[in-house]
Amino acid sequence: MNYIIAKLKNDRTRSIIFMIIAALLWSTGGLLLKGLDLNPLAVAGSRSLVAALLMLAIIKKPSLKFNMYKLGFAVAFAATMILYIAGNKLTAAANAIMLQYTAPIYVALLGAWFLNEPTSRLDWVAIFLTVGGMFLFFLDDLTPGNIIGNILSILSGVSFAFVVMMLRKQKDQSPIELVFWGNLLTAAIGVPFLPGSAPDRSDLVMLVIIGLFQIGLPYVFFAYGTKHVSALEAVLIPVLEPILNPVWVFLMMGEKPGRFALLGGFIVLLAIVGRGVIITLKVNKHRKDIQTAYNKEPPL
Protein backbone atom coordinates (compact mmCIF):
# COMPACT_ATOMS: atom_id res chain seq x y z
CA MET A 1 0.00 0.00 0.00
CA ASN A 2 2.78 2.44 0.92
CA TYR A 3 4.53 1.60 -2.35
CA ILE A 4 1.40 2.35 -4.42
CA ILE A 5 0.83 5.70 -2.69
CA ALA A 6 4.49 6.68 -3.10
CA LYS A 7 4.47 5.66 -6.76
CA LEU A 8 1.34 7.71 -7.51
CA LYS A 9 2.93 10.72 -5.85
CA ASN A 10 6.21 10.25 -7.74
CA ASP A 11 4.44 9.80 -11.10
CA ARG A 12 2.51 13.04 -10.70
CA THR A 13 5.55 14.98 -9.48
CA ARG A 14 7.64 13.63 -12.35
CA SER A 15 4.96 14.58 -14.87
CA ILE A 16 4.77 18.16 -13.57
CA ILE A 17 8.57 18.44 -13.78
CA PHE A 18 8.45 17.14 -17.36
CA MET A 19 5.84 19.79 -18.22
CA ILE A 20 7.99 22.58 -16.74
CA ILE A 21 11.04 21.35 -18.68
CA ALA A 22 8.96 21.33 -21.89
CA ALA A 23 7.81 24.92 -21.26
CA LEU A 24 11.39 25.96 -20.53
CA LEU A 25 12.65 24.49 -23.82
CA TRP A 26 9.70 25.87 -25.82
CA SER A 27 10.43 29.34 -24.45
CA THR A 28 13.77 29.44 -26.31
CA GLY A 29 11.88 29.59 -29.61
CA GLY A 30 11.63 33.38 -29.76
CA LEU A 31 15.38 33.70 -29.42
CA LEU A 32 16.26 30.84 -31.79
CA LEU A 33 13.84 31.90 -34.54
CA LYS A 34 15.01 35.53 -34.67
CA GLY A 35 17.77 34.82 -37.18
CA LEU A 36 15.61 32.91 -39.67
CA ASP A 37 14.03 34.65 -42.63
CA LEU A 38 12.30 31.69 -44.28
CA ASN A 39 8.78 30.73 -45.32
CA PRO A 40 6.88 30.07 -42.04
CA LEU A 41 5.51 26.76 -43.36
CA ALA A 42 9.04 25.72 -44.34
CA VAL A 43 10.21 26.47 -40.79
CA ALA A 44 7.31 24.54 -39.24
CA GLY A 45 7.81 21.54 -41.53
CA SER A 46 11.60 21.44 -41.26
CA ARG A 47 11.77 21.62 -37.49
CA SER A 48 9.05 18.95 -37.25
CA LEU A 49 11.03 16.71 -39.62
CA VAL A 50 14.06 16.92 -37.32
CA ALA A 51 11.83 16.29 -34.29
CA ALA A 52 10.22 13.28 -36.01
CA LEU A 53 13.65 11.77 -36.73
CA LEU A 54 14.60 12.21 -33.06
CA MET A 55 11.40 10.47 -31.96
CA LEU A 56 11.88 7.71 -34.51
CA ALA A 57 15.31 7.04 -32.97
CA ILE A 58 13.58 6.68 -29.59
CA ILE A 59 10.63 4.47 -30.60
CA LYS A 60 12.53 2.66 -33.41
CA LYS A 61 9.49 0.91 -34.89
CA PRO A 62 6.26 2.94 -34.83
CA SER A 63 2.97 1.08 -35.10
CA LEU A 64 1.14 1.49 -38.41
CA LYS A 65 -2.23 0.79 -36.79
CA PHE A 66 -4.45 3.86 -36.67
CA ASN A 67 -7.73 4.72 -35.02
CA MET A 68 -9.78 7.91 -35.00
CA TYR A 69 -8.06 9.27 -31.89
CA LYS A 70 -4.54 8.62 -33.17
CA LEU A 71 -5.38 10.23 -36.50
CA GLY A 72 -7.19 13.05 -34.70
CA PHE A 73 -4.09 13.79 -32.63
CA ALA A 74 -1.86 13.98 -35.71
CA VAL A 75 -4.28 16.38 -37.43
CA ALA A 76 -4.66 18.55 -34.28
CA PHE A 77 -0.86 18.63 -33.80
CA ALA A 78 -0.14 19.64 -37.40
CA ALA A 79 -2.93 22.24 -37.25
CA THR A 80 -1.44 23.74 -34.07
CA MET A 81 2.01 24.07 -35.62
CA ILE A 82 0.80 25.52 -38.91
CA LEU A 83 -2.01 27.75 -37.62
CA TYR A 84 0.27 29.36 -35.05
CA ILE A 85 3.00 30.03 -37.63
CA ALA A 86 0.45 31.42 -40.11
CA GLY A 87 -1.31 33.50 -37.44
CA ASN A 88 2.01 34.86 -36.23
CA LYS A 89 2.80 35.91 -39.80
CA LEU A 90 -0.51 37.76 -40.30
CA THR A 91 -0.99 39.45 -36.92
CA ALA A 92 1.15 40.81 -34.08
CA ALA A 93 3.28 38.16 -32.36
CA ALA A 94 1.75 39.10 -28.98
CA ASN A 95 -1.75 38.56 -30.40
CA ALA A 96 -0.78 35.14 -31.77
CA ILE A 97 0.70 33.93 -28.47
CA MET A 98 -2.09 35.39 -26.34
CA LEU A 99 -4.85 33.87 -28.49
CA GLN A 100 -3.17 30.46 -28.69
CA TYR A 101 -2.95 30.29 -24.91
CA THR A 102 -6.69 30.63 -24.53
CA ALA A 103 -6.49 26.82 -24.86
CA PRO A 104 -7.20 26.21 -21.12
CA ILE A 105 -10.70 27.66 -21.63
CA TYR A 106 -11.50 25.10 -24.35
CA VAL A 107 -10.09 22.24 -22.28
CA ALA A 108 -12.18 23.36 -19.30
CA LEU A 109 -15.33 23.52 -21.44
CA LEU A 110 -14.77 20.20 -23.27
CA GLY A 111 -12.80 18.14 -20.74
CA ALA A 112 -15.80 16.82 -18.82
CA TRP A 113 -17.49 15.63 -22.04
CA PHE A 114 -14.44 14.35 -23.88
CA LEU A 115 -12.31 12.98 -21.01
CA ASN A 116 -14.66 12.75 -18.03
CA GLU A 117 -12.38 15.26 -16.27
CA PRO A 118 -14.79 17.83 -14.76
CA THR A 119 -13.64 21.40 -14.14
CA SER A 120 -13.81 22.56 -10.52
CA ARG A 121 -14.34 26.05 -9.13
CA LEU A 122 -10.62 26.19 -8.33
CA ASP A 123 -9.85 25.37 -11.98
CA TRP A 124 -12.01 28.23 -13.25
CA VAL A 125 -10.34 30.66 -10.84
CA ALA A 126 -6.92 29.51 -12.10
CA ILE A 127 -8.04 29.89 -15.73
CA PHE A 128 -9.45 33.37 -15.12
CA LEU A 129 -6.23 34.51 -13.39
CA THR A 130 -4.04 32.91 -16.06
CA VAL A 131 -5.84 34.49 -19.01
CA GLY A 132 -6.03 37.83 -17.17
CA GLY A 133 -2.33 37.65 -16.36
CA MET A 134 -1.53 36.84 -19.98
CA PHE A 135 -3.54 39.87 -21.09
CA LEU A 136 -1.54 42.13 -18.74
CA PHE A 137 1.70 40.46 -19.79
CA PHE A 138 1.14 41.36 -23.45
CA LEU A 139 -0.82 44.57 -22.84
CA ASP A 140 1.87 46.86 -24.27
CA ASP A 141 2.18 44.79 -27.45
CA LEU A 142 -1.42 43.80 -28.16
CA THR A 143 -3.01 45.49 -31.18
CA PRO A 144 -6.30 45.08 -33.09
CA GLY A 145 -4.19 43.14 -35.58
CA ASN A 146 -5.21 41.46 -38.81
CA ILE A 147 -8.60 39.79 -38.40
CA ILE A 148 -7.55 36.70 -40.39
CA GLY A 149 -4.34 36.37 -38.38
CA ASN A 150 -6.30 36.68 -35.12
CA ILE A 151 -8.81 34.04 -36.25
CA LEU A 152 -5.99 31.65 -37.19
CA SER A 153 -4.39 32.23 -33.78
CA ILE A 154 -7.69 31.50 -32.01
CA LEU A 155 -7.99 28.28 -34.03
CA SER A 156 -4.43 27.35 -33.01
CA GLY A 157 -5.60 27.61 -29.38
CA VAL A 158 -8.52 25.29 -30.12
CA SER A 159 -6.27 22.78 -31.90
CA PHE A 160 -3.71 22.91 -29.05
CA ALA A 161 -6.52 22.10 -26.62
CA PHE A 162 -7.33 19.04 -28.74
CA VAL A 163 -3.64 18.05 -28.84
CA VAL A 164 -3.68 17.85 -25.04
CA MET A 165 -7.07 16.12 -24.84
CA MET A 166 -6.13 13.57 -27.51
CA LEU A 167 -2.94 12.75 -25.60
CA ARG A 168 -4.93 12.32 -22.40
CA LYS A 169 -7.53 10.20 -24.23
CA GLN A 170 -4.73 7.82 -25.24
CA LYS A 171 -2.64 8.11 -22.06
CA ASP A 172 -2.27 4.32 -21.89
CA GLN A 173 -0.73 4.24 -25.38
CA SER A 174 2.77 5.36 -26.38
CA PRO A 175 2.61 9.18 -26.21
CA ILE A 176 5.91 9.65 -27.98
CA GLU A 177 4.61 7.66 -30.94
CA LEU A 178 1.58 9.92 -31.21
CA VAL A 179 3.82 12.99 -31.29
CA PHE A 180 6.01 11.29 -33.90
CA TRP A 181 3.06 10.96 -36.28
CA GLY A 182 1.99 14.55 -35.58
CA ASN A 183 5.44 15.85 -36.45
CA LEU A 184 5.62 13.65 -39.54
CA LEU A 185 2.32 15.04 -40.84
CA THR A 186 3.52 18.60 -40.14
CA ALA A 187 6.76 17.86 -42.01
CA ALA A 188 4.86 16.43 -44.98
CA ILE A 189 2.87 19.68 -45.25
CA GLY A 190 5.69 22.16 -44.59
CA VAL A 191 8.95 20.72 -45.98
CA PRO A 192 7.90 21.16 -49.67
CA PHE A 193 8.04 24.93 -49.05
CA LEU A 194 11.71 24.78 -47.96
CA PRO A 195 13.42 24.86 -51.42
CA GLY A 196 11.50 28.04 -52.34
CA SER A 197 12.95 29.75 -49.25
CA ALA A 198 16.51 29.12 -50.48
CA PRO A 199 18.00 28.40 -47.03
CA ASP A 200 21.77 28.66 -46.66
CA ARG A 201 23.95 26.42 -44.49
CA SER A 202 23.51 28.52 -41.35
CA ASP A 203 19.71 28.39 -41.80
CA LEU A 204 19.80 24.59 -42.07
CA VAL A 205 21.99 24.29 -38.97
CA MET A 206 19.59 26.54 -37.04
CA LEU A 207 16.59 24.49 -38.23
CA VAL A 208 18.26 21.32 -36.91
CA ILE A 209 18.95 23.00 -33.54
CA ILE A 210 15.37 24.27 -33.33
CA GLY A 211 13.98 20.89 -34.34
CA LEU A 212 15.94 19.14 -31.62
CA PHE A 213 15.72 21.58 -28.71
CA GLN A 214 12.57 23.63 -29.35
CA ILE A 215 10.27 20.95 -30.76
CA GLY A 216 11.78 17.46 -30.42
CA LEU A 217 12.99 17.25 -26.81
CA PRO A 218 10.23 19.41 -25.26
CA TYR A 219 7.52 17.35 -26.92
CA VAL A 220 9.16 14.17 -25.62
CA PHE A 221 8.89 15.57 -22.09
CA PHE A 222 5.40 16.98 -22.74
CA ALA A 223 4.07 13.71 -24.17
CA TYR A 224 5.27 11.65 -21.21
CA GLY A 225 4.11 14.34 -18.78
CA THR A 226 0.48 14.11 -19.94
CA LYS A 227 0.19 10.55 -18.64
CA HIS A 228 -0.14 11.52 -14.97
CA VAL A 229 -1.66 15.02 -14.94
CA SER A 230 -5.11 16.21 -15.95
CA ALA A 231 -5.73 17.76 -19.37
CA LEU A 232 -6.23 21.16 -17.74
CA GLU A 233 -2.89 20.93 -15.94
CA ALA A 234 -1.25 19.85 -19.19
CA VAL A 235 -2.48 23.01 -20.88
CA LEU A 236 -2.02 25.43 -17.94
CA ILE A 237 1.61 24.60 -17.10
CA PRO A 238 2.86 25.31 -20.67
CA VAL A 239 1.54 28.88 -20.27
CA LEU A 240 4.92 29.37 -18.56
CA GLU A 241 6.45 29.34 -22.07
CA PRO A 242 5.56 32.90 -23.13
CA ILE A 243 6.29 34.14 -19.61
CA LEU A 244 9.81 32.68 -19.78
CA ASN A 245 10.46 33.90 -23.34
CA PRO A 246 11.35 37.50 -22.39
CA VAL A 247 13.58 36.18 -19.62
CA TRP A 248 15.91 34.78 -22.30
CA VAL A 249 15.71 38.02 -24.27
CA PHE A 250 16.57 39.97 -21.11
CA LEU A 251 19.52 37.71 -20.26
CA MET A 252 20.90 37.66 -23.82
CA MET A 253 19.99 41.15 -25.09
CA GLY A 254 19.26 43.22 -21.99
CA GLU A 255 15.65 44.07 -22.99
CA LYS A 256 13.73 44.72 -19.77
CA PRO A 257 10.02 43.78 -19.60
CA GLY A 258 7.58 46.55 -18.64
CA ARG A 259 5.62 46.87 -15.39
CA PHE A 260 2.45 45.35 -16.83
CA ALA A 261 4.46 42.40 -18.17
CA LEU A 262 6.02 41.80 -14.76
CA LEU A 263 2.63 42.04 -13.03
CA GLY A 264 1.01 39.73 -15.59
CA GLY A 265 3.81 37.20 -15.31
CA PHE A 266 3.49 37.22 -11.52
CA ILE A 267 -0.28 36.61 -11.73
CA VAL A 268 0.20 33.71 -14.17
CA LEU A 269 2.83 32.11 -11.93
CA LEU A 270 0.64 32.67 -8.87
CA ALA A 271 -2.36 31.04 -10.60
CA ILE A 272 -0.45 27.97 -11.82
CA VAL A 273 1.67 27.41 -8.72
CA GLY A 274 -1.19 28.25 -6.33
CA ARG A 275 -3.54 25.80 -8.02
CA GLY A 276 -0.84 23.13 -7.97
CA VAL A 277 -0.11 23.63 -4.27
CA ILE A 278 -3.80 23.52 -3.30
CA ILE A 279 -4.43 20.36 -5.33
CA THR A 280 -1.27 18.71 -3.93
CA LEU A 281 -2.41 19.46 -0.39
CA LYS A 282 -5.83 17.97 -1.14
CA VAL A 283 -4.30 14.89 -2.79
CA ASN A 284 -1.89 14.36 0.12
CA LYS A 285 -4.77 14.66 2.61
CA HIS A 286 -6.76 12.12 0.59
CA ARG A 287 -3.81 9.72 0.51
CA LYS A 288 -3.28 10.19 4.25
CA ASP A 289 -6.95 9.36 4.86
CA ILE A 290 -6.60 6.23 2.72
CA GLN A 291 -3.44 5.22 4.59
CA THR A 292 -5.16 5.80 7.96
CA ALA A 293 -8.18 3.72 6.92
CA TYR A 294 -5.87 0.97 5.62
CA ASN A 295 -3.90 0.85 8.89
CA LYS A 296 -7.14 0.53 10.87
CA GLU A 297 -8.31 -2.46 8.88
CA PRO A 298 -8.13 -5.65 10.99
CA PRO A 299 -5.67 -8.27 9.69
CA LEU A 300 -7.18 -11.17 7.76
Low-confidence stretches: 1-8
Q: Into which percent range does the helicity of residues fall?
A: over 70%
β content, as a range? under 5%
Order of helices and strands: HHHHHHHHHHHHHH
Distance from N terminus to C terminus (CA atoms, Å) equals: 15 Å
Q: What is the strand tally?
A: 0
Radius of gyration: 20 Å
The largest sheet is:
none
Outline of the structure:
Residues 1-8 have low confidence and may be disordered. This protein is mostly helical and 300 residues long. The radius of gyration is 20 Å and the shape is globular.
Task: Characterise this structure.
- With about 300 residues, this protein is mainly α.
- It has one domain (about 1-295).
- The chain is built from 14 helices and no strands.
- It has helices at about 1-25, 30-35, 40-60, 70-90, 95-100, 105-115, 120-135, 145-170, 175-190, 195, 200-225, 230-235, 240-255, 260-295.
- It starts with a helix and ends with a helix.
Structural descriptors:
mainly alpha; 14 helices; 300 residues; 79% helix
Write the layout of secondary structure elements.
Elements: H1 2-26, H2 29-33, H3 40-59, H4 68-90, H5 93-100, H6 103-115, H7 121-137, H8 147-169, H9 175-190, H10 194-197, H11 201-225, H12 231-236, H13 240-253, H14 259-296
Helix pairs in contact: 1-11, 1-13, 3-4, 3-9, 3-11, 4-5, 4-8, 4-9, 5-8, 6-8, 7-14, 9-11
